[in-house]
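Entry type: protein chain
Record version: 2
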Amino acid sequence: MLDIALNRLYPGKIALVSSFGAESSVLLHLLTQVDRGAPVLFVDTQKLFGETLRYREALIGRFGLTGVRTILPYADDLATADPQGSLWLRDTDACCHIRKVLPLERALEGFDAWITGRKRFQSSGRADLDVFEVAEGRIKLNPLANWSVAQLKEYAEQHDLPPHPMVAQGYPSIGCMPCTDKVAPGEDPRAGRWRGAEKIECGIHLPTHGREIDGSGI
């Protein structure tokens, strides 16, 4: 699937978006079997765990990835909406919008398609996830949509892929440090994200692509 997408359908016009999180090593390793230099977009919200940043560097070195691009929020957006860096305390949607949704939206300009690592088992909201989607005029490819936890584990063990160091500490889904909590046995893997809130997605995978809060002044 990745070979066809990268080399036949969208050559030079498709990027993989990776959080370098709990299960990212599998998709990134699959990518290396096709093209180690393919564009990989990593959004650094500047609120990430240090473990994630170090894990990113470890995987880049281990896999020989040469197309990783680190995407940062715009300084003007932060100065306007989050000068103290505490917006997450008041409005997590707005915080995600300026630190993740807008930067990725800008980074995807010029691409016709993008690849994500989402899976159906991750949460009830992703249970009906399609392998191919249309979002904001682009094709979104979810090649691991129907993979199970067991399949991911088997693949990682088969290829001796290093796990994110926080997984063993009880974090099966890892986002920004202020809004990521440990997950109890039996909970959805993403239950620790925005704990205690109705929010279940950062915004980049919502049908509106985060535009539902454009009235915030950003």
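Comment: The longest helix spans residues 92-107.
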